[in-house]
Amino acid sequence: MKGRTLRHLKLLRASAISAGVLLCLLASPASLASDEQLSGMKSEISRQEQQLNSKSKKLNALQSNLKSQEQSIAAIATQMRNANADLSVIEKDISTLNRESQRLEQLKLGQMELLKELLNSQYRQGQHSQLNALLSGEDSADMDRMTVYAEKLSKARTDAINELAATDTELQLKRRALQQQTEKQKTLIASLAADKAKLEKEQQAQKKTAGAIRREINSDKGYLAELRNNEKRLKVELERAAEQARIAAEQAKVKMDGLGKYKGKMQWPVKGRILHRYGTAQTGQLRWNGMVIAAKEGSEVKAAHDGTVVLSNWLRGYGLMVVVDHGKGDMSFYGYNQALLRNVGDTVKAGDPIALVGNSGGQDASALYFEIRRKGNATNPSPWLTR
């Protein structure tokens, strides 16, 4: 009993010492320094998280501004394209009206000459009237012939006067139509000049925003992260487009038999110098899934093959993009456009214009991003295009 009590006392003493040591350690300057370091680290982590959130918000806001600016540019560019088409029609109408007016002027001159001759003939015939014929002793047969001739001459003169009046009326109508078309042409040209100025202003704003975005992702790490996120966004959009592709295949007005039979026969979407080829390095370990072709701003982007439009929208990193479904899981992509000319559900044939070349998505230069995917996997587009 006594031995057991001694062991208990020793254990209690050891426990008391351990607790004392622990209290001393917690109260020591080293422990206090660790607490301060831990608190400082937490504050730094919190600050960096706030900074990252702030950067992310700023980048998202810039991308939102870019989207808005590029959609405005697209609307103006489409408007200008339609106005130019209208102007072309008006100019043809003006040319036709000018030719018609010139023809009518010549016809009028001829009719006036004819009328002069008829009036002269009638005047000369008047000098040999029936009274003169009677006084001169001409027989009744000659007199009848003169009467018939006078009647025919009078009718010819009346017809000539009516034809001249009709020609004159038609000429006046043509002149009025020509004046109206010319006024319409002037209005349209003035509108195009205003649209061009507006477009240039929007493009300047777009350049500034794109520059600000590039500064925000200026590090390799930041650029890589943005590219990866853009690829994820594209996959999400393609998943949404999958249902549209299924509907398109059912309602297709064009062949939706895939691209398999057309390798090496597909049309180039634009003609130009290749800036980036499929599979070449984009940044870090990321490589280009398609090709980038330099082309003049505003030039037409053509569908590479028959199909149905399943996506026509602005996508971060790709700008204004059209995706055409060709059936059997084959799709072609057209990005960086200035404007989109087709809507979801539209059917297109090879060579049909589907967009206008631009630099949307924050690109430095005017170009087209072109990609082909088969069952969701990117493939080198070059061998598929006609040589």
From TrEMBL:
Keyword Signal: yes
Native species: Grimontia sedimenti
One matching Pfam family: Peptidase_M23
Residues spanning the signal sequence: 1-33
Chain segments annotated as coiled-coil in the UniProt record: 38-107, 182-255
Keyword annotations of the record: Coiled coil, Signal
CDD domains for this protein: M23_peptidase (cd12797)
Entry GO MF terms: metalloendopeptidase activity
Stored SUPFAM superfamilies: Duplicated hybrid motif
InterPro entries named in the record: Cell_wall_metabolism_enzyme, Dup_hybrid_motif, M23ase_b-sheet_dom
Protein name, UniProt field: Peptidoglycan DD-metalloendopeptidase family protein
